[in-house]
Design goal:
By secondary structure, the chain is mostly helical. Helices cover 77% and strands 0% of the residues. The protein has 21 helices and no strands. Helix 7 runs antiparallel to helix 14. The C terminus is likely disordered.
Length: 470
């Protein structure tokens, strides 16, 4: 089937944008201080929490990478396996959510400082900011790509529009507005995908025709990948999710432990619907459009279906991207405000000043993300290593705070450095030997270093010092 742009789909994007902007402006009027801006006044109920967790985690990586690319390139089973890391991660976060709330910190860096000292906070802040800027820039570009494919709008204009939406929604009302727009987008995602799955199967001629039109390897368990290569695709998202500051901030923003638990259960159920739906749609796309770029598999189906259904799917995809982008942008800005500005530049900053600086940093980081992806597109390939840099550099040390009382500052900081250095060495210097993603190497190294250094530097009485302001 030939791909032909459909400019009428712009109406669906336009309607979605108007609704999101209106909600953002309305919620901005309820902001009363910096905690309200960053943690929504710790007022998120279970439904809003579920929606914002879902929308934040499911972004451009899902609709142009992740399950989409896996289903198109390797088959239905490898794509379905990609759901497992998310489900495991949600269950682990469910267990530690009460502890996250007890810390009451604005950032993951703050949690790490409470256990490992100031040096860990500084290192974590740098890792988070660099990783999140890359993720935000990818969302902007993803928005440009889907508008170009579906409506014919230039990638450059689409990227600019995506950047403006992401920056505005993050800046105008912080998590107070982002959580509300996320919640609406989350339910739009679920509804759009549920409608699309049976429609695209019918358009493709039924499941039998789909299977007949894809390579035989696409119906095997690994799609031609070795076990190690498959693990290399599965582990990055798990370790990113387990240490993702966005998730920690949202769990800390819930009304209480009961709301947090209900919200996470809803998130788990929604992912069981969304992840397989994306996989099936992209797998059907492989049958209909065998020669397109794998990253465009999901969005290409909007052009093969009735306009209304295609428009709903397009709006859902846009919501994936915008909500993920503004969430990561807001989160990175809080690191600049509380870990750097509040700690080193203006320790006596008033609450009003912290709020204004967070908004300034949102705009600054948003513009930087746009410039990065617009004028230095080759940097994106390096930025994608940030998933593993983040997961290997932060997650083992962060989880140890909750699960291993004996861990100390030497072990935590050494683990963070080992994870980052191993990732960059494997990906940049060694150029990813054997086509194995660095997470398979970097995460075990980070964990081993964490354990060995802690045991070597802990006093014989096994007591652990916890340097709150070291």
């Amino acid at each position: 089937m030939e791909l032909q742009n459909d400019p009428t789909l712009l109406w669906y994007i336009g309607l979605y944008a108007v609704v999101m902007i209106a909600i953002g402006i309305f919620m901005s009027k309820k902001i009363s201080g910096s905690e309200d801006f960053v943690l929504a006044g710790k007022s998120l109920g279970p439904f809003v929490l579920m929606g914002t967790l879902l929308a934040t985690w499911t972004g451009s990586g899902s609709i142009s990478g992740g399950e989409t690319s896996m289903a198109f390139s390797y088959g239905i089973w490898p794509a379905l396996f990609l759901m497992l890391p998310t489900l495991i991660g949600i269950i682990i976060l469910y267990v530690i959510a009460p502890k996250i709330r007890e810390f009451g910190k604005f950032t993951v860096s703050g949690i790490l400082q409470a256990k490992y000292g100031r040096k860990s906070r500084n290192l974590a802040s740098v890792i988070i900011i660099l990783a999140y800027v890359g993720i935000v820039s990818y969302q902007m570009k993803g928005f440009g790509f889907i508008l170009n494919l579906t409506t014919g709008m230039s990638v450059e204009l689409g990227t600019l529009l995506g950047g403006i939406m992401i920056i505005f929604l993050a800046m105008v009302g912080g998590l107070r507005s982002v959580s509300q727009t996320d919640a609406i987008s989350g339910f739009l995602m679920v509804g759009g995908l549920i409608i699309t799955v049976p429609t695209i199967i019918a358009v493709a001629g039924g499941w039998g025709d789909i299977v007949a039109n894809v390579p035989e390897s696409h119906m095997t368990a690994t799609g031609g990948l070795t076990t190690i290569q498959l693990l290399g695709f599965l582990l990055p998202s798990l370790f990113l999710l387990l240490g993702d500051q966005n998730m920690y901030q949202r769990l800390a923003s819930s009304k209480g432990d009961s709301s947090a638990k209900k919200g996470q259960i809803g998130w788990l159920i929604a992912m069981i619907i969304i992840s397989p739906s994306i996989s099936i749609i992209a797998f059907a796309s492989r049958s209909i459009f065998p020669n397109i770029d794998p990253g465009m598999a999901l969005m290409a189906t909007t052009l093969a279906m009735p306009t209304v259904i295609g428009g709903i799917l397009l709006a859902s995809a846009a919501s994936f991207i915008i909500t993920t982008g503004n969430s990561y942008l807001l989160s990175a800005a809080t690191n600049l405000t509380y870990d750097i500005y509040g700690n080193y530049i203006n320790k006596e900053a008033s609450d009003k000043k912290l709020l204004s600086m967070t908004r300034i940093f949102i705009v600054a980081l948003g513009v930087f993300s746009y410039l990065l992806i617009s004028y230095f597109p080759t940097v994106l390939s390096v930025q994608m290593y940030a998933y593993t840099v983040y997961g290997a550099g932060l997650t083992p040390a962060l989880l140890a705070v909750f699960f291993w009382k004996r861990v100390n500052a030497a072990g935590g900081i050494s683990s963070m450095l080992a994870g980052v250095v191993t990732t960059l060495t494997w990906e940049v210097i060694l150029q990813k030997p054997f086509e194995i993603n660095s997470v398979v190497i970097a995460v075990p190294v980070a964990i081993i270093v964490l354990i060995v250094v802690t045991l070597m530097t802990t006093n014989g009485d096994s007591r652990t010092r916890e340097p709150v302001n070291a």
